[in-house]
Amino acid sequence: MAVPTETEPHFHQRKKKMKGGDARYLQHEKLRHERSGSEYSRKPRVVGIYAYQLNEHDDWKWDNNIRLPHYVFITERIDPYLLSHTSQTLRRIRSHDYYPDNTSLSEVMRNYKLAIAGSNSDIKSEDPLNFLMLLSKSRDALNDIRYGSEDYEEAMATPLEDENCEAAPKNAQWMLHSFPTCNFLHENDWVTSVRTSKTKILGNGYWRDVWPVLDSEPSSLLRQKKVALKTIRYEHDYTERNFHRHVRDAIVSERLTSSPLVTSIYAFCGNSGYFEFATGGSLANLLEQHYVAKMNAESNKKLGRSHVENDDDNKVLDQHTKLSLAYQVAAGLADFHDADAMRDKNGEIISAAMVHADITLDQYINVGGVYKLNDFNRCRFMRQYRSSAESGGDGKPCGFQVDNNPAKNRSPEEYAYTVETEKIDIYSMGNIFYSILTDMDPWEETIEKKAQEAVMRGERPYVPLAIKASKDFVDTALRKMMW
Asked: What's the pLDDT at 382?
């Protein structure tokens, strides 16, 4: 499998650029290269922030013996086995990671940072256990985990290409390469911002925490422009699989830069990145406010209090707004599916190149009054069958499978765990239209398992008779869009 890479200048090329005053540094680098056994390596500056409520007896302390308030900050070098395909990344350490026998946590942290070797894009088989200061008992235990654990195997990234399918030639370059911009993330002093409460957690998705931070660009600082910093949540392990999901998120965001209906990305490094800041919450937040306001209005009407002014009155969505929201949802997904789409020999689109695989109300966020599609860490890439490579165009589209498909908003093929394509996004988009049209969530009165079984039988969620029979232009349009 080819993997996303970030290239660096060869060690000997860097040697030519050095001046006489760098002799000591050069000697140090040469010695480190000889010890690591790699052709060249580097020691990147890597910083991580993780939300973590410290217990009273935890012994996590900063270098100056000041106890960390609420968060853990970690700087270390790279694990070459998991991260051989990137030069810099964020990596979280937990107290149970590589824990030597009869050693305190503070010693583990110090030794671990000294022991992990640098890496580069050319190394494919470095073993991190060779660089750790462990007793044989601990090393054997870690080997048992590596070679005998299903969890370890499941933590590895799913290859893009296999014996049956490969990336279409026109898409292979961008699908297989990423472009980390770690310096942009390091320009901001996260440690000071968090310690002084200038930056606090804004919220989180399943995989990452979201922090509002000021853009470090000088003109933006004058305007107090915020960007959204996303970092992996403390509860998730650093694995190659998790790293790759955030690489895909960055790759897709970069490919969709031109779309005004997809959030912009400004930088990414490892599991973290800077993204466009959402000022108005998600589409799910908006509809929830609408549901509540509508119920309150109906309740007041029944109680004869319809004349009473209420702050909720402005939160009830009119039909024109509903249609506009549905359009923004559809247009954003259309931009996503059309980008680098696969085509036949006549130039006609036959498949999307990218599949979001998690289209929900929460994935559309309000940026300056426009609801934009975001969050591509569950994204999958469409490929071509190797056997169709000579058929012209981009070949025959090759689908994929996702191993975990929860909730009640997905397609039949997802719940049946069969081959999936971009059509799963269209099905899930229909559920968004359902919510906009009916003021309800699909299958909201049905337990998850029963709802999934109903979807696989081809059944549809309940639609009130009044909406089915409505002649209203917007209701009619949304029904057609939904079905």
From this structure: 97
Structure tokens given for 286: 């908006």
- Judged on CB neighbours under 10 Å (0-12, 13-18, 19+), 296 is middle
Cα Rg of the chain (Å, integer): 26
User: Rounded to an integer, what distance in angstroms lies between the CA atom of residue 190 and that of residue 209?
Assistant: 14
Identify the three-state secondary structure at position 40. Answer: coil
- Strand, helix or coil for residue 255: helix
Q: Residues 9-67: pLDDT tens digits?
A: 333 333 333 344 444 444 544 544 444 444 333 333 333 333 334 444 444 444 444 44
Phi-psi label, residue 375: left if phi above 0, alpha if psi -120 to 50, beta otherwise: left
Return d(Cα 303, Cα 305) in angstroms, integer.
Answer: 6
195-209 as b/e, with b when 16 or more CB fall inside 10 Å? beeebebeeeeebbb
As given in the structure block, the two tokens for residue 137 are 């008992």
State how far Cα 272 lies from the chain centre. 9
Using a pLDDT cut of 90, give the percent of the chain over it.
Answer: 47
Cβ-based neighbours of 18, under 8 Å, separated by 6 or more: 25, 26
Please count the other Cβ atoms lying within 10 Å of the Cβ belonging to residue 261: 21
d(C-alpha 57, C-alpha 369), whole Å: 47
Do β-strands 226-232 and 272-276 pair in parallel, antiparallel, or remain unpaired? antiparallel
What is residue 149's three-state secondary structure?
Answer: coil
**Residue 210 in 3-state DSSP?**
strand
